[in-house]
Design goal:
Layout: E1 12-16, E2 20-25, E3 37-42, H1 44-54, E4 58-62, E5 64-66, H2 69-80, E6 89-91, E7 97-101, E8 110-114, H3 119-122, H4 130-133, E9 139-143, H5 145-148, H6 151-166, E10 170-174, H7 179-182, H8 189-197, E11 202-204, H9 207-214, H10 224-235, E12 241-251, E13 254-263, E14 267-269, E15 273-276, H11 284-297, H12 302-316, H13 328-336
Parallel strand pairs: 1-4, 1-9, 2-7, 5-6, 9-10, 10-11, 11-12
Antiparallel strand pairs: 2-3, 7-8, 12-13, 13-14, 13-15
């Protein structure tokens, strides 16, 4: 444990979102090529839940999964990482899926979704008992992927953040704008996401996410991020902090990443880290969110939180799959530096 972290009780988190199965060709092949597909369990909120459970926190997943072996597979994977699953609904319907062809060299990765009409997307919001779900929880975390899935998930996300506020919980929200998903139904992304951010105290997103929320196009130039977050603070009175990453892509397997957090009073930007030999970048944003939330729950200040977020997002690039199941010793080793074998 970092000496700056509190030795007190772990954070208590709840996550609302869809759990998915991901299928990926091995060896960076195209989806159209013949061959086996690797299977991973993922989903934006589930990825954060796994990371925080591995870091010693209580992580409660709130979702609906189909009855049957595919839903069972998702449960087995999450339970193995220590995620609390006692409140997961099992219903009729299908499993949400997505397919990832991982890029290489100058060919970017490609995602195909197959999640329309999933058990999660078709479960009505009234199926969830918020007082029971939020018992013994300090913070709710969710992302913009959930409301993008359709009318029921959009209502679910808004009801969840309002119920969390009524129960005295803190709320964090990751913008995670997915145009492919929003385009599938008659939706109002700006209005829906804005209503959710109104209930949030911590936003994960950059100046582009804020531009979408506010319907503005004037966040340009070297001070764009600070001007954007100041506009967000003015528009969303509950908001206390905005955290984001910046990624410069040299080619698919080598990126330069730094992170930033802005509060109403201050801002802190990390050093830039070159991440080379990337194995899998999917879920890196979720790892960043988990690192920030872990550090804040452990008693670190905003500067320490964004450094932890940078560490976990960099580590995520070394693993296949969506989640970043690293422990506190892994984080401490990254922050200390050094790449030799740990014996």
């Amino acid at each position: 444990m970092d000496e700056s972290e509190s030795p007190g009780r772990p954070g208590r988190f709840a996550f609302v979102g869809e759990v998915l199965l991901r299928f990926s060709p091995s060896d960076h092949r195209l989806l159209a090529e013949p061959g086996a597909l690797d299977v991973h369990v993922g989903g934006a909120e589930a990825n954060v839940a796994v990371a925080l459970a591995r870091l010693g926190h209580r992580s409660r997943m709130i979702t609906a999964l189909p009855s049957g072996p595919l839903g069972d597979r998702a449960l087995f994977a999450l339970r193995g990482w220590g995620v609390e699953l006692g409140h997961v609904l099992r219903t009729e319907g299908r499993m949400g899926l997505y397919f990832l062809a991982r890029g290489a060299s100058l060919r970017p990765s490609r995602v195909l979704y197959d999640r329309e009409g999933s058990a999660f997307a078709t479960t009505p919001p009234q199926a969830y008992d918020w007082p029971a779900l939020f018992k013994d929880v300090d913070r709710l975390h969710l992302s913009g992927v959930t409301p993008a899935l359709g009318p029921y998930p959009a209502r679910l996300a808004l009801e969840a953040v309002r119920a969390a506020r009524a129960a005295g919980l803190e709320v964090s929200f990751d913008g995670n704008y997915r145009p492919q998903l929003w385009a599938r139904w008659s939706s109002d992304p700006r209005g829906i996401l804005g209503d959710i951010v109104q209930e949030s105290d911590l936003l994960f997103g950059d100046h582009r996410d804020i531009a979408l929320l506010l319907g503005r196009e004037d966040f340009e130039g070297p001070d764009a991020r600070r001007r954007a977050v100041e506009a967000a603070f003015a528009a969303f009175p509950r908001l206390k902090a905005v955290a984001s990453t910046t990624r410069e892509i040299e080619y698919v397997a080598r990126h330069r990443i730094r992170a930033r957090i802005d509060t109403r009073e201050t801002s802190h930007e990390t050093r830039e880290v070159q991440v080379a030999g990337i194995v899998d970048r999917v879920g890196a944003g979720d790892a960043f969110a988990a690192g920030v939330l872990h550090a804040l729950a452990s008693g670190r200040d905003a500067d320490g939180a964004v450094e932890a977020g940078l560490a976990l997002t960099c580590l995520k690039h070394s693993l296949p799959g969506d989640a970043a199941p690293f422990d506190r010793a892994d984080l401490a080793a990254f922050e200390a530096g050094g790449l030799d074998v740990r014996r």
